[in-house]
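[step 3/7] fold_predict: job queued, chain A
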Amino acid sequence: MNWISEWALPKIKTLFGATRDVPENLWHKCPSCEQMIFQTDLEKNLRVCPHCGHHMRLSAKARLDATFDEGWQRIELPRAPADPLRFKDQRRYAERLKDAQTKSGMDDAVMVGHGAIEGQRAVVAAFEFAFMGGSMGAGVGEAVVAAARLAVLQDSPLIIFAASGGARMQEGAVSLMQMPRTVIASQMVKDAGLPFIIVLCDPTTGGVTASFAMLGDVQIAEPGAMIGFAGARVIEQTVREKLPEGFQRAEYLLEHGILDMVVKRGEMRATLGRLIRLLRSEPAADAA
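[step 4/7] structure written:
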């Protein structure tokens, strides 16, 4: 019990009348500073804490809405074979997959859309971390390849917002095969002379980090995002040394040259629009 349930909610119920239901999710506590925030205010602020600036996780749909200008369109993605290994641990993988699809309204952990960013045409793929930790299986591989092909077809830059725990263990080697597939997809975009921009969100780890997520022409991250391959504890046990403070956080990686910039969520659309204009500008004609 806390002051919200013991004091605030009874006061709200008294104010609006005992017969009216008060939503349970009216407030949200910031995991960083622990300040209470109205849910509506948090959503308007793109799930960034107004008190401490902590960037909370954002759904793939909300991220595309925040990135594109109005009028963007979601594309239908190829369907990958479901449960190729007929995997089962405590539950069948097919059941876990179905539950994730029902809760998210997505077929897999990536949503792809095309439209304009600050008036500049672009294709954007966004990971949904709530879908089995944004893990990369055959469905995610198909989504990244489809996004790359669409970018080439439309002569548009490709932007990927990565947020993933890595390879999807329930698909075994099929999941690991998506690492070279997504690398090839990124190379398709580059071979066409189109910008390939990566935005690393919290968290981006494992096989996603070890494949396309580190191959952008421009590497961006959100503030405080955890980015790495293996977990910090595993690394410490391997090298038998204490890791530096903030190791695997966006600011540390920026300082050590892994990232090009760290951009606040509220400034992301303007930054991407500016980058697209710079990267797509034609060289000035030689003076006669």
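[step 5/7] annotate
The first strand starts at residue 27 and ends at 29.
The mean pLDDT is 91.
exit 0
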